[in-house]
């Protein structure tokens, strides 16, 4: 069987974790992943105008019995701290957050490295788990473990996706 | 005389029935509990300004067979006005978004918002929410909500209300307690387990 691409492995991981609603705000690196999610049977796809909305939508979906996830860029994570604090942390509502980690080593865009640096620092400061996927062969297991951690801890778990993982 | 939100909430009680509410902020939650009692915790409070309708959207997508009522405030919605486009894009048939517009940041010292010059219903309509109303009396509020309940489409109702003269006494329920009470109530009416038993997998 041919090896699956990074985006395909990620979708497999979401499905095998039971994720059934995914909010997304696409950018260059996540184009293929978001496209796959939008076509995936059994997943409700919710496009966002602003990333913070996804934390609200995911919270409501969780209260109603769904398993939510999100696909956003690290800049969008930094846009979302109000909802993360006042909904997910205050009420202990989990959501699996897949973050396109632009500015990760290996990239050439000069505007991205500060986003990576600040996003990593902020996840530490709000004391929430932050995992990293760099290779397709690790993606499925990391996502399944992250989703389990979400459900056990009842808090958001962030999974940083290296941009090279998302090409494919 | 301008209507107040508490009178609107009294009108809502029999209409909501076994359906669910998402409410922005503490004040409206306390007003709802004053009117509705605490036995059935069908209300979840979103403390994140501008996110009430998004929490409602998530609930509406998760539970398409139940009506979801969102009680919002003008200051909160102004903080996330783009969410009307997100709501309109998914357009769940079971969500009724009620905006209590008192043109004021009441909990922030009653300073004015700039919503006196803002036509929220026109913005919602431009975002492609087809059922929109702006009402200024209790009779019109009741008519609009009853009509919205009969629709199979997203509804957006702007209720022009007075600035509350005083806050209701603050309750002691925090977000965590609210979450569990809401989920346990939902489990009882949906007759299904919502919080997963992870150890049994």
Summarize the structure in short:
The complex is a heterodimer of chains A (168) and B (201). Chain A has 168 residues and is of the alpha/beta class. Helix content of chain A is 49%, strand content 17%.
Provide an overview of this structure.
The complex is a heterodimer of chains A (168) and B (201). Chain A is an alpha/beta fold and 168 residues long. Chain A has a single domain, classed as Thiamin diphosphate (ThDP)-binding fold, Pyr/PP domains (Rossmann fold, 3-Layer(aba) Sandwich). Helices cover 49% and strands 17% of the residues of chain A. A 6-stranded parallel sheet of chain A has the order 2-1-3-4-6-5, with helices on both faces. In chain A, strand 1 (21-24), helix 2 and strand 2 (44-47) form a beta-alpha-beta unit. Chain A is globular. The mean pLDDT of chain A is 95. With 201 residues, chain B is of the alpha/beta class. Chain B has one domain (5-200): Rossmann fold, CATH 3.40.50. Chain B has 8 helices and 8 strands. Chain B starts with a helix and ends in an 11-residue tail after the last helix. In chain B, helix 1 (5-16) crosses helix 2 and helix 1 packs parallel to helix 7 (138-150). Helices cover 41% and strands 18% of the residues of chain B. At the A-B interface, strand 2, helix 3, helix 5 and helix 7 of A face helix 3, helix 5 and helix 8 of B.
